[in-house]
Amino acid sequence: MLIECVPNVSEGRRLEVVAAMAEAIRGVPGVRLLDLSSDPSHNRSVFTLAGDPIGVERAVLALFERATAGIDLRAHKGEHPRLGAVDVVPFIPIEGATMADCVTLAKKVGAEVAARFGIPVYLYEEASSNPARKNLEDIRRGEFEGLAAKIASPDWSPDFGPKAPHPTAGASVIGARMPLIAYNINLATDRLDVAKKIAAAIRQSSGGFRYVKAAGFMLQDRGIVQVSMNLTNYEKTPIFRVFETVKREAERYGVSILESEIVGLVPAAALNAAAEFYLQIASFKPDQILENNLRT
Amino acid sequence: MLIECVPNVSEGRRLEVVAAMAEAIRGVPGVRLLDLSSDPSHNRSVFTLAGDPIGVERAVLALFERATAGIDLRAHKGEHPRLGAVDVVPFIPIEGATMADCVTLAKKVGAEVAARFGIPVYLYEEASSNPARKNLEDIRRGEFEGLAAKIASPDWSPDFGPKAPHPTAGASVIGARMPLIAYNINLATDRLDVAKKIAAAIRQSSGGFRYVKAAGFMLQDRGIVQVSMNLTNYEKTPIFRVFETVKREAERYGVSILESEIVGLVPAAALNAAAEFYLQIASFKPDQILENNLRT
Hints:
Shape of chain A: globular
Largest sheet of chain A: 7 strands, mixed
Order of helices and strands of chain A: EEHEEHEHEHHEEHEEHEH
Number of helices of chain A: 8
Distance between the termini of chain A: 9 Å
Largest interface: A-B, 43 and 43 residues
Number of strands of chain A: 11
Oligomer: homodimer
C-alpha cells in the first residue's frame, strides 16, 4: 500500500532548519522524500514523501518533532497564510490504498500529534465529517495570530488536543485528499477571451465540473492562450472528460487545441484512465500492467 | 534496469520437473517469476520472469542446468515444434533498458550456455545480424529430429557452441525482442467478413502495419465479431494508431467499435503513449508519473 504525504511547514528561509527536517524524514525506513521546495517569500517549505502507512506515519511524527523544536511562530513572517509550525498535512492514496485508508491514517496521526506534542489538530477535507470544517481556507482563516480567540469558540474546538494554541507551534490541519494534477491546455489562438470563457465553462465555481479549478491566461512569449487547471479528484472528474469538454467548447469559437501539458507529477492511474477511455478497453485491471507485477 | 525473459521449455507433462525449474528461478535474488503456464498437449512450459540483467542471467542459467538434467528430447513428444530442452529464450526491454541492452545480454547468455552445457545456440530476432536467421520458425524448421543434418550445413552453423546437437538437449534459440501485446477489438456486428477485411487491412502480411499480426473471428456466444491481434512492437506500431485505423476501416462498412481488450500483460509505456496521443500532451517525461519516482 502506497500513500503520499505533502506536509507544508512554516519555514522557508533558515535552510539549515529545513535540511534537519528533511534529514529526519529520510531517516525513516519505508519512506522516500520525493521532493522538497522552500519559498523564502512565503517563508514556507513543502515536503513530498511517499511510502507504506507505518513509514509515512513515523516520518510525519519525526517532522513534527523537528519542526516543533525549531520553529517559533511568534517570530514567523511570510506572505502565505499559516496556522501552525507544521501547517497542513494531507495524506493521499496512490496505489493499493483507498481514501478510507488515508482518512484512518490522518485521524491516527492527528491523535498522536496532539498527545505527543500538545498541539491542537483540525481534521480537514475527506477526514473531516463537519461540512463547515472541510475547507482548508475556512480552518486557517485568522491565522496563528487569531487562533487563541477562534479556538475558544464552540464551533472551532479542535478534533484532537487542547482547546488552546501551542505557544510556539500553533495548530495543525491534518487530513486526506486525492492527488492534485496541474494540467494546462494550450489553444491555437491569441484570443484571451476564448481561454477565459472556456475556463469559466469547466470550473466548478461557475457551474463546471466539480473537481476543476481553472483560469485563462495569455502566454505572451508564444502568442497563444492557455486554460490552466488544477484537477483535484481525477477519479471523479477524469482528465479525458475535461480535455474533451475544452476541445468541444473551443470548437464553438473556431479554435483548436494546440497541445496539453501535465505540470509535475501525475498518478499512473490518471493516465491509464485516458488510455482506457479512448481505446474503449473493456474490463481492464491494473495488474495487467506488467510493471505492477514487479512491486510487492 | 528491468528486463523481462520468457523461456519456453520442452516439458509440460511431468509437473515435478517443471516445479523444480520454477524453484531454481525463484532462488535467484533480484528476479521474480511472474507467470508459469504448462501445456500438456504441447508438452511445453512458458516461464515469465523479470529483474535486473545480472539476476535474469543467473536465473536463465539455473533454468538451463535443471532442464538439461531433467529433459531428454529423444523421448519428448508434443504438438508444439521444438529444437531444444530449453527451446527459446527471448530477452525483452521493459524499463530503463534498451533493445541494445537485451541484445548484449542475449549474446552473453548464449556464450555461457554453450560453454557451460555444450549446447549449440542460435541467436534470433534483434540479436541476430543475419536476415536469414532472424525468424524463429526458420531456425526451428526440421526440429530436434532434423537438427544433426541441419547444423552440419554451413548456413546453419550455430552462433555459439559445437556444430553438433547436444545429445539430449538439442539446441537453444536465444535472442531479444520487444514485448508482445495481445490486443483484440470487438465490433458491434455479426458480420465476419468485416472483421476479416479489417484484419487484412491492418496486418503486415497483407500490406498493413509492420508490427501487427491479425485475424478476424466470430465470437459465437456473443453474436459479434473480433479483430484479434498481436502487436509485436508497440513503440513503432503503437496501440492508438492500430485502434484508430480499425475504427476508420469499420466506419467504411457502417460498423462501430464495441470495445477493445488487452489480454494478459501490457507495458505501462504502451498505455501512456495512448494517453499522450489523445490528450495531445506535449513534452511528457516518464518521470512525471508519480510511481516512477518510487523505484530505484
